[in-house]
Amino acid sequence: MKKLLTSTLLSATVLGAGLVASSNVNADDVKEGASTATAVQFVGGTDPIKPVDPTNPTNPTDPGDGGGTGNPGPLSIVYATKDISFGADNKITAAGYSIKAHDDIAVEVGDIRGNNKGWALSVKSDQFSDGATTNPQILEGAVISFEPGSSVVANGGTSLAATTDIVKDTTVGGVPLKADGVVKDGANKGKTQGAGLNVDTIAKDKITLTIPANSAAADVAYKSTLNWTLSDVAVS
């Protein structure tokens, strides 16, 4: 055992001496060099993009709440909140109403095309009614509006978060989320915007249902639908 230990120490000493000698090599003593070329290339993605938990975007797990759309394609809406409510116990008054939502809205857009073209997510709502096919009761003048939401990128921050706009009246359409592709100016010039998986959350206190006076009737379950549309060209 003692002999083996001595041998090991000797080897370490010789190795250490070699390292010291290498570190003292002068640049003038280097006679030749060489280079190795490296390369990589990609094609646009084609696999379906899986949604993430919008309350925890770093968690790559579908929350399983029915919000996953199952939409295929390299540019798609992969998640949208299934339903929201403005309450079922709003009292009739002589004045108009401005009611905040009871739920957040989250929408996820995936873009794995790899062309940095940009995109825009628009929303348009149906008018509120009781859903009857014949002589439906309409909640005349009702408007859903959005204040700017908060956008995050759920792919490790390799793209910029998309911007948000105010949507004053969803019955005439609006663009709550858009990405211009490549940033053209400013501190982030040249960086990609909108690529990867983008999660946009509009908090419930930023979603408002406005109803004029004398429009609502008691004990009527009014319903509407927010329809989201994704365009492959960003709206300026």
Describe the structure in your own words.
- The structure is a single chain.
- With 236 residues, this protein is mainly β.
- It has a domain at 75-231: Immunoglobulin-like.
- The protein contains 1 helix and 12 strands, in the order αββββββββββββ.
- The N and C termini lie far apart (78 Å).
Short description:
The chain is mainly β and 236 residues long. The chain contains 1 helix and 12 strands, in the order αββββββββββββ.
Q: Provide the structure class.
A: mainly beta
Strand order in the largest sheet: 1-3-10-6
Largest β sheet strand count, sense and barrel closure: 4 strands, antiparallel
The count of β-strands is 12
- Percent of residues in helices: under 10%
Number of helices: 1
Secondary-structure arrangement, i.e. CATH architecture of the domain at 75-231: Sandwich
Q: Name the overall outline.
A: elongated
And the CATH topology of the domain at 75-231?
Immunoglobulin-like
Set out the fold topology.
Elements: H1 2-23, E1 75-80, E2 97-100, E3 105-111, E4 119-125, E5 143-146, E6 150-153, E7 174-179, E8 181-182, E9 192-193, E10 196-202, E11 207-211, E12 226-231
Antiparallel strand pairs: 1-3, 2-11, 3-10, 4-7, 4-12, 5-11, 6-10, 8-9
Q: What keywords describe this structure?
A:
236 residues; 1 helix; single chain; mainly beta; Immunoglobulin-like; 3-stranded antiparallel sheet; 4-stranded antiparallel sheet; disordered N terminus; elongated
